[in-house]
Amino acid sequence: MISIRLMHSSAQELAVKRFLLLASVLTAFAAFGNAADEPRPLVDAIADFNSRAAKDEIGRVQPSLSEAEVIAAIRGWIRERTPVDDETYFAFQTIATTGLLPDRANLRFITRWTGYNSYDFDVWWVDLTIMTGEKKGYTFRIRDQKKEMRSRTTTTINHSTSRIVKRNMGRASSFKRETASATVNGPGP
C-alpha cells in the first residue's frame, strides 16, 4: 500500500511540474505577443530558414541549421558576456524547453558586415529575434562566423588571368565577388 501511495504521489508531482511548465510557457508567450498569437514549432522555422539559406551565395555552402544547434546556443548563453533582462532571457530559455517560437519570433541570416574599422566582411550570422513590443525586440546570435574580410582599399588577384586589379571602396560602394579570385589586403602595388 505504501508503494502505491508513493507512485500516486510521484504521478501527482509530475502532473504539477507539467502544469507549472505549461503555465510558465504561456506567461512567457503572453509577455512577448498578444493572446491571439500562436506559437510555431521551432523545427518548422528551422526548415524555412534552411530553405532560404540554400538560395543564398554564402548560405548554400554552410551546414544546415539544426534544432540541436539552436537549443545548445540558447542553453549555452553566457549572460555575463551578453547581458539581458530576466524576462527576455526566460523567453529564450522557454523556446529551448518547449521547442516553440512565439508568433513574432523569427530566424534570419546576415551575410555582409561593412565598414567596421575600415573593413568589409563576408559573414554567416544566424540570429533568432523575439519581438517584445510593437517596434522593439531582442536578437540573440545563434551562429557567428566571419568568412572573409577586405580592406576598404583592396587588391584583388584574379587567378584565372593572373592580373592584379585594384579597387578603392568608397562608403557607398558595395563589394561584388569575382569568381576564381582571392583578396589580398593592403595598399597593393
Helix and strand arrangement:
Blueprint: H1 2-31, E1 40-41, H2 42-53, H3 67-75, H4 86-98, E2 100-101, E3 105-116, E4 119-131, E5 137-151, E6 153-158, E7 163-168, E8 181-185
Antiparallel strand pairs: 1-2, 3-4, 4-5, 6-7, 6-8
CA gyration radius, whole angstroms: 23 Å
What is the string of helix and strand elements? HEHHHEEEEEEE
Strand order of the largest sheet: 3-4-5
State the distance separating the first and last CA atoms.
90 Å
Biggest sheet, open or closed, and with what strands and sense? 3 strands, antiparallel
Number of strands: 8
Q: In DSSP terms, counting alpha (H) and pi (I) runs of 4 or more, how many helices?
A: 4
Mean pLDDT: 75
Shape: globular
Unreliable stretches, pLDDT < 50, 5 or more residues? 1-8, 25-36, 156-189
Our count of domains comes out at: 2
Q: Helical amount among residues, as a percent range?
A: 25-40%
Strand content: 25-35%
Structural class: alpha+beta
